[in-house]
Fold:
Amino acid sequence: MQYSVLCPGQSSLIPPIRSALRSVLRSALRDCRHQTLTLVKDITPQIFRTQSHPDFSPVGWHLGHIAYTESLWVAEHLAGLPRQFSQYERLFAADGLPKSERQNLPALDQILAYLQAVRSQTLDYLNSSDLENIRLWHWLIQHESQHAETIAMVLAMHQTNCGAFVYPKVQPVSFSESNNMVHIEAGSATVGSDAPEAIDNERPAHLVSTESYWIDRAPVTCGQYQRFIEAGGYRDAKWWSPAGWQWLKSANVDKPRYESSRESGQTGLNTTVESDYPVCGVSWYEADAYARFVGKRLPTEAEWEKAVRVEKTPEKTPEKTPKKTLEDRRDRTIDSIVQDGVVQVGSVWEWTDTWFSAYSGFQPFPYKGYSQLYFDGEHRVLKGGSWATPKWVRRPSFRNWYHPHRRAVFAGFRCVISSSETDRN
Structure:
């Protein structure tokens, strides 16, 4: 792994601003770590060190990797301290061991001590740092946030494997939301972000033009998806792309990872969930097939991001209330946007029809392979965040990426239809 890219300096910060930034970072580091540790408060030794699926590392590895990455970038690269905790280097480096060999872990209390020792170093350095590399501090907080969500995902998979999965703590979709679409006018929209917290694959912010389209107000629900299952959608090749049909034959599945059913008492992998919750645990291929079944398609990344940034039109606007500009809205979090947006977001990650690739002008950060490794034409973009996504990565511009065959625990979707298509009908 190459570690050669760091952020341009900001040494011109005046002391009051630098002090305020330190306070913000300390609070974020503290709150983010609290969320991470809460996830493993009652974890058993077996769950701590066991893979839930061959594609995922054990929970304990993610905890150790968080500490390893923080030490690498703060203690070594920023503070210039000699390398410490060398005994963990091969075990917790992202390219150190294959996932199948990451189960031979130190005990939980040892890894928690490792996290605390590294964090003490980090806070000591923060107290004296000139914050020349402010982007790197934001990146570290978001790096931990991403691994914390993965921990939540692994824990959910363990629960499912034991037949004890509890459906995610999200709000059900109302009937009016699940059966309505929102019209988005043609025109340009900002995609991406240049905010300090934006990671490399979100940059630079740029304008993208779209034709007019209709988009589902809310993600597709389990009840809606159930109609696809009952209509034989998993047995009819006409709804599937060639690659999707090939995947389906090899995967040998006939329902999402979490099945919708009005019957009670079911347990096991396909645990019963309420029909008005967003469907989750579907691959991109399944989402694409459902969209074809209902005469729609998956949104492009630009269509999704544009729709999320559109605000509801108020019934009455006071004459002296200034209109919010796109610049005002650009970098708000999903949590703030959902309050006044025209679409419901944030319950599940949502598949898009876009391949994960670099925006024009992309610059890798903090090292070459962080995002660039996945610009391989084999990963689809997901947007929006799930109920388990920490707030530091919940923003419209954030880009998640998975292989299209991955049946991610917290992944669902919504559909769109081009206005030109509705005009023909």
Summary: Confidence is low (pLDDT under 50) at residues 1-5, 7-11, 260-272, 314-330. The longest helix spans residues 134-161.
